[in-house]
Amino acid sequence: xxxxxxxxxxxxxxxxxxxxxxxxxxxSAWAAGHARLLLADLIPAGPGAPAxxxxxxxAFAGSLAAAWVTVRATRxxxxxxxxxxxxxxxxxxxxxxxxYGIAFEPTGAVIGSALAALGALVYRRASAAGRxxxxxxxxxxxxxxxxxxxxxxxxxxxxxSGEAREVAVLSVRVLDTRILHEEEGAARALQLADTALANAxxxxxxxxxxxxxxxxxxxxxxxxxxxxxxxxxLAAPAIAAARAALALRAQLEIESDGPRTGLGIxxxxxxxxxxxxxxxxxxLGALGPEPDLASQLAAANADYAxxxxxxxxxxxxxxxxxEFRPIDFLPAASDPGKPLEVFELLGLAGDLGExxxxxxxxxxxxxxxxxxxxxxRAAAAxxxxxxxxxxxxxxxxxxxxxxPDRQSTAGDAAExxxxxxxxx
Length: 424
Known about the structure:
By secondary structure, this protein is α+β, with helices and mostly antiparallel strands. Helix content is about 60%, strand content about 15%. Helix 1 (about 1-40) packs parallel to helix 3, helix 3 packs antiparallel against helix 4 and helix 6 (about 185-205) packs across helix 7.
């Protein structure tokens, strides 16, 4: 009889040990999972890192300590029961007590593991809810409703503390503001500019943009943040920005009674994250030369009579995806001594018909000849690019610069820069 009792007790002890080991393994897996939460928030560190370190460390340590104490207390209680059962068995007590140990020990271990898992679940829900509230508040009013819903569904899609990501920046600027003010008066000028930018904001929000800046004369948005995959290539946000810019340009041409506007697109890797502290003024901001470049390009439309200007990096990113024509070299805001080639965005791939592409290619040849100083061949190419009955202010401007009596050209400022040409 005592052999059966001892065997039953040993079987119960083994079962209890296995259950406790499973509970501790589950606890370890849970701790590893929540380490990801801490790393996602704190690496790389940003302006709010000290507060985030304290907040997440206290919450994580408290939850982990509670779960650890629960498991350890359960195992201590199991040890006491083991000792009691062994003592009773040694005294030749009824083997029913051993059977009681068999039934209770695994149950106690399972209960302890379940309590630890319950604590982990509560902490996980609380952590996700806190992050959801934080990220939604940062993007509120600057992202479309479906974008906010996507953030609420995946609150870990970006790092508020800061991260590097490939994005595209689109700037919409109201041009000729002095003339607008003089002709319309202060109140009317402000109303016209605000209405134009508000209409542009609605269209760009629907296209998935995030509003990074809004002033009386400029609207600047980001594509590729905060919703896009951080591993995505530059082409994805660049094509989204180009598509949105073309749609906005078409809308602005229909609304001919509004003020004149210009669009500029730049793309590259930016530092993105929370700015404005921890209060109500907090938002997501971008650090890098591209936002200033996009604003510069948008303003430059006033000088070239163009609609959408893009810098060389975006032109390279959209090679084969969009149609461009060269315009000029501009001094980059981040490095005035290094001219940056600028292109006009005409449409997406396939938007231009055969004749339009032939005229675009003739215009391109004319620009190459003009930058090389061959005005006669440039003028001939520009005349070949003319479309009867369709006014093209940009082409007319270049035709004027190609006259033999002109002393400077639209591209002369950078003739010392090696020019990339495109034929056909």
